[in-house]
Design brief:
- By secondary structure, this protein is an alpha/beta fold.
- It folds into two domains: 137 residues, Aspartate Aminotransferase, domain 1; 266 residues, 3-Layer(aba) Sandwich (Aspartate Aminotransferase, domain 2), CATH 3.40.640.
- 38% of the residues lie in helices and 12% in strands.
- The strands form three sheets. It has a seven-stranded mixed beta sheet, with helices on both faces. The chain has a four-stranded antiparallel beta sheet with strand order 9-10-13-12. A two-stranded parallel ribbon has the order 1-11.
- α4 packs across α12, α5 packs parallel to α6 and α13 runs parallel beside α15.
- The radius of gyration is 22 Å and the shape is globular.
- The protein starts with 6 loop residues before the first helix and ends with a helix.
- It binds pyridoxal-5'-phosphate.
- The site of pyridoxal-5'-phosphate has 12 residues, from α5 and α6.
Length: 423
């Protein structure tokens, strides 16, 4: 696509944008001047869908009116609250409905998945991760290794960028898998890296590892709601994600988990269980049923009863994704939006700003990570003062994530103007 750096061009793209009406479905935080911020922080906390209030209010009303009876008699019964989330969630990650479950938070779900899949033996005990990984993942994986009385020094394999590079080459990941083909138990990598915005080649990594009997899981925190995913068709073993980033479900909202159906239906797998993973037919025999009977689906990993108030906004948010036409449609706009941002940055010159995110659109989502060569901290302050909401990672990287549902081409244009004014 041919881009142009003038404002009218940005305005024209907004006029032609088939998703432009969705901006109005979100509350846009305003700056001191009362004007909407240029909100590029959807990779940290997505904006609030206006419809979320209605859905949460409905649950509060049902609680007030029905008390305990709301478990079965609420408009959306609480006992099965995971059900209305199932199909829209499956569409987001590209899974069969029975392969996904909304529960807990991301890191908790990672531990639950590791309880099932990380069964180290004397020969197979290593876990491969990308570097840098999100700290919560690093802590979870290292403590999992120690939990099995092993040492991360021996058991953790890191795939790092080469000297002078910022992102990890898929070839290097595949080489590491080959090198450790007999000792790796699990490959655990982000779908999209939180720091660089790199979108990993999930199908290729999955094939390379599974060829040697290695289990493959992906952290989709920065991928779900950002890029189209095909967990089932890529044959991925398991995945977890949060819903408060690109999925706009609100702070600490319920997370998700996926298990390929060969695992989801395998009731013999080891797991950490709770009553909501039990067969609903015997669940309410309570103390009369001391043996855990897992449901033959991803629900078997559900430990507790559903947290209604952290799930309600997700219903509202997923409905917007469906109304917008799903991930294919949002990705189409996202490619243009981020492509436009990249184009404008390239006009400013690479001496001042280096984008460390891959320039190949198929190797990134909506986020660009911009390394500011000159006075990065001052620049970040200037951005904040000018009404841009983005974030800063020490020592010099500014992460910006224009999202297709509520950002405009003019947001991107104005952001580039502000960068250009930076001395
Ligand atoms: C955001 C994020 C998390 C957050 O974990 P929570 O358990 O939701 O607090 C974990 N891992 C990655 C890769 C993330 O991007």
């Amino acid at each position: 696509m041919q881009f142009s750096a003038d404002q009218d061009f940005a305005k024209q793209l907004d006029l032609e944008d088939p998703l432009r009406r969705f901006r109005d479905e979100f509350y846009l935080p305003a700056g001191k001047d009362g004007k909407p911020l240029i909100y590029f922080a959807g990779n940290s906390l997505g904006l609030m869908p206006k419809s979320a209030r209605e859905v949460v209010d409905e649950e509060l009303d049902d609680w007030a009116k029905l008390g305990v009876d709301a478990h079965l008699d609420a408009k959306t019964p609480w006992y099965t609250y995971q059900e209305p989330l199932r199909e829209p969630t499956a569409r987001i990650v590209g899974a069969k409905p029975a392969e996904v479950i909304c529960m807990n938070s991301l890191t908790v779900n990672l531990h639950l998945m590791m309880a099932t899949f990380y069964r180290p033996t004397t020969s197979r005990f290593k876990i491969l991760m990308e570097d840098p990984a999100f700290p919560s993942d690093t802590y979870a994986i290292k403590t999992q290794i120690r939990h099995h009385k092993l040492d991360p020094k021996d058991a953790l394999v890191l795939a790092s960028p080469r000297n002078g590079e910022f992102t990890v080459r898929t070839d290097d990941i595949v080489d590491l898998i080959e090198k450790n083909r007999d000792t790796l138990a699990i490959v655990w990598i982000a779908g999209v890296n939180f720091f660089t915005g790199q979108l990993f080649d999930m199908p290729r990594i999955t094939k390379a590892a599974q060829k040697h009997g290695i289990i493959v899981g992906f952290d989709l925190a920065h991928a779900a709601g950002n890029v189209p995913l095909s967990m089932h068709d890529w044959n991925v073993d398991f995945a977890v994600w949060c819903t408060y980033k690109y999925l706009n479900a609100g702070p600490g909202a319920v997370a998700g988990a996926y298990l390929h159906d060969r695992h989801a239906t395998n009731t013999k797998l080891p797991r950490l269980a709770g009553w909501f993973g039990n067969d609903p037919n015997t669940r309410f025999k309570l103390h009369l049923e001391p043996e855990f009977v897992p449901v033959a689906s991803a629900d078997a990993w559900q430990v507790s009863n559903p947290p209604i108030f952290s799930m309600a906004p997700l219903r509202a948010s997923l409905a917007i994704f469906d109304a917008a036409g799903g991930m294919k449609t949002t990705r189409d706009k996202s490619l243009k939006l981020t492509g436009y941002l990249e184009f404008l940055l390239s006009q400013l010159g690479s001496k001042r700003f280096t984008v460390i995110t891959p320039d190949e659109p198929s190797a990134r989502g909506c986020q660009l990570s911009i390394l500011a060569q000159e006075n990065p901290k001052e620049l970040f302050k200037e951005l904040l003062a000018a009404g841009v909401k983005c974030d800063f990672r020490e020592p010099n990287v500014i992460r910006v994530a224009p999202t297709p549902l509520y950002n405009t081409f003019e947001d991107v244009w104005r952001f580039a103007q502000i960068l250009n004014q930076h001395p």
